[in-house]
Amino acid sequence: MFSKDGGKDGSMISSCSSQAIRASSDSVLLRANIKCPILSSTSVKIFSYDNLRLATRKFHSNCVLGEGGFGCVYKGWIDENTLSPCEPGTGIPVAVKRLGQESSQGHKEWLAEINLAHLSHPNLVKLFGYCLEDEHRLLVYEFIPHGSLDNHLFKRDSCQPLSWNLRMKVALGVAKALAYLHCAEINVIVRDVKNSNILLDRVSESSEHRTSPI
């Protein structure tokens, strides 16, 4: 996961073992393991559990994007301006990560993921906000439409194969994201770069790289 240690120059160096990077344009989801509350400077929205429940059609199975040891990720819809839940096909799609009771991602890692929301780069996934109510822990991210690089490389879920030209663009996008995270000002050390953590928001040759921030 993600820890902080003092660097040789006294600066804080962040270490991250789990991430997702947005490519074709690309993206990065980070997890951490640090003892800290949610920073007051973190500019993310606090969502209510009821609103996220409505946004995902009561966490319907048809809305599941993926699942793992952490829990499930659901597709939901929110209003672009108010960020309130709306009907499917209206507003903007989001990915709602719902941590299970037996999640492999602990509460410290969950908090650290929120506190990394200040990171901003065209190749990083944007965190819109979070929900912390009773036992419910959820994170709300921008929706990346074309799934993981892993699915495209191994042709899973009817994903179309990628040309070598597009694969080079993906690699360049990942390199840009890592260079940003490893720079002196950010000091995030990524320790888990893999195909399943690289998300594609474009799969056509003529598409421009996406420039929205994390």
TrEMBL record:
Domain Protein kinase: 59-214
Full protein name: non-specific serine/threonine protein kinase
Single GO molecular function: protein serine/threonine kinase activity
EC number: 2.7.11.1
Highest taxon in the source lineage: Eukaryota
Top EC class, one word: transferase
Binding site residues for ATP: K97
Keyword terms: ATP-binding, Kinase, Nucleotide-binding, Transferase
